[in-house]
Amino acid sequence: MSVIRLGYVHVRVTDLARARDHYQNTLGMDAVHEEDGRVYLKSWDEDNHHSVVLEEGGVGLVKFGYKVTGEDSLAALENRVAGFGATAERMSKGDNAGVGDGLRVTLPSEHVLELYSEVEYLGTKVGKINPDPWPRTGLRGIGVPRINHALITTEDPALLERFFAEVLGFRPAERLVSGDEPGDLVGSWMFCGENPHDIAFVNGPNGKLHHFAYQIDDWSALLRAGDVMSMDEVPIDFGPARHGITRGGTIYFFDPSGNRNEVFSGGYRTGADFRPITWTMDQAARGINYTHREIDQDFLQVVT
What we know:
Elements: E1 3-13, H1 16-26, E2 30-35, E3 38-42, E4 52-56, E5 60-68, H2 71-84, E6 87-91, E7 102-106, E8 112-116, E9 146-154, H3 157-166, E10 171-177, E11 185-191, E12 199-203, E13 208-215, H4 219-231, E14 236-242, E15 248-254, E16 260-266, E17 277-280, H5 284-288, H6 297-301
Parallel strand pairs: 1-4, 5-8, 9-12, 10-17, 13-16
Antiparallel strand pairs: 1-5, 2-3, 3-4, 6-7, 7-8, 9-13, 10-11, 11-12, 14-15, 15-16
């Protein structure tokens, strides 16, 4: 597959100073660049220039980016996007700080997706030669190691699943359905590597973000993350709990502007021979919140 993984999420925030404090001091990210009312941040175990961009002025998703294997991949993907009937334009080095030339795609769900292969290398806090498992100094708050996935909403999940499969080469790991017809797809959790999911989407308004997530080590790290959130009075949506879908441990919470974040641990391994799992709507509560087997309606309806 030419798409490797989620590279960055770019969101709007109502108060840049408060948002920066949340992402730096509660989550533990580092600011690497600032310009024109934007702050670019990366986590300690990420090599590339940034994984989160905060832009002052509103709330919600501006765009998100996925890294691909090379320039040849971008050309092939551009042809597939056109063949699908979606729109795309080339983006230039410098349009995003630290990121090279790429392809900017408007998805059928009206989200903006950027695909790129070249990005400035900053390295991790532990390096690549005889590294320690985590930095002895410089960790703050939760100390999230890396970004993991995003979940967006779409009026037509079946169409968006087909786009990610046919154009970008993703495969569904798990699907939530309300019936047997293709149009009965309620949600899809899709992967491009070996994660349980690299992108997910559920039925809802076009162009909206449900959450983006950070990978952390295990259940103990998840509980510690919950402690830090309580210390910093971060609004928690739900968790600590386990998902049925993906089997991962989770806590959902909000940044100061109301964008939903997640810390995610565990899950299973996918890959080229993975066969998708199906969940039916009568078991959706277990799929989303396996621990408590119930869903707060605000969790489904609050998006930015």
